[in-house]
Amino acid sequence: WKIVLKAAVTGADGVIDPATEVAIKYGSFLATILNFLIIAFAVFLMIKTINQYRFEEGTEEESEELRTNITNVIYEIAGDCFDAYCTEGNTGNFYLFISVRPEFYNEDVTDLIMNTAKRTQSMLWQYLNLECIIGIGCGNATLKGLRSACNRAFVAVRSKYYYNECQSIILYSDDMKTNAMDITAEERTEVFQTSQAMKKAI
Length: 202
Prior knowledge:
Radius of gyration: 19 Å
């Protein structure tokens, strides 16, 4: 998708040269938002890498390259079935907002989400030697629902430590609700900033 500011020029041979077109491309992110509004629920995946030292011990350039590689893997896997938007939280935490593409509306959405999480986890290990825990949270198609979905994904990840979950991919359920006092100010800030970043993007 794009907004054309200046049409492509036709050459002397009658062939249009696409390189001469001036346009603003807004592509898949807008599609993500539109699909989010159409399907009436929001899905967040929180991807927490376990190998924190990989971000802290390398040079600034190495850490930035690692972040870029992680984001690329996340987008590549999620892009098979979803429109996606990824943002980084605290060191080693990545939040992925996804919406199902129209061609997959008749599929089982939970299966698509779980398969995407499994493949993301597998590829991060295979290509970057990174282990991760993935929490999945859903909410309704409102800005409040967006924040709720993000918070639920966060709580799902925490449940691995608080409730001795054996899985490394965890779908939020109501029995994971935690006392607000258990969540530190830093953690609340991370969830808030992530949902605000998404709100501003919308």
